[in-house]
Amino acid sequence: NTADGDGCSRECAIELGWSCGADNVTCTCACCGRISSQRGNVSVPASSSGYVDNLRCEWTIGAGGDGITLRFANFSTESNYDQAAILSCANESCFNATVVKSLSGDVSASGIINITSGIARVKFKADGCISGRGFLLFLAPM
């Protein structure tokens, strides 16, 4: 995705985590995508040095119908500046989505987050300064 959100182009700066193909049209992302399964996990790249500054990640999870249960583990971001948000969506476009939970800082236990619509969007946004270790998010059917 580009900084302006319009896909790959020669005129726009590419956000960290994304890369453009030679055609300047095809984009890929290291920490985003569509997960149709309701079981598994996603993570913000974590290492001993943490995630990179200005990182943007986004996943759409589920296929609708059955609900999804989400639970964060090992959550560590720069408090008040780097944030993860869970949105409940009526459909895959997530237009007019509802923010269910936002997390920032060191969180030992996020609790269970139930998405009854069966479709969730997870967004992570880091600023350009201090970074944390990241997080792991577990997915399961309700």
TrEMBL record:
<keyword id="KW-0732">Signal</keyword>
<protein>
    <recommendedName>
        <fullName>CUB domain-containing protein</fullName>
    </recommendedName>
</protein>
<keyword id="KW-1015">Disulfide bond</keyword>
<dbReference type="InterPro" id="IPR011936">
    <property type="entry name" value="Myxo_disulph_rpt"/>
</dbReference>
<keyword id="KW-0677">Repeat</keyword>
<feature type="domain" description="CUB">
    <location>
        <begin position="31"/>
        <end position="142"/>
    </location>
</feature>
<dbReference type="Pfam" id="PF00431">
    <property type="entry name" value="CUB"/>
</dbReference>
<dbReference type="InterPro" id="IPR000859">
    <property type="entry name" value="CUB_dom"/>
</dbReference>
<dbReference type="InterPro" id="IPR035914">
    <property type="entry name" value="Sperma_CUB_dom_sf"/>
</dbReference>
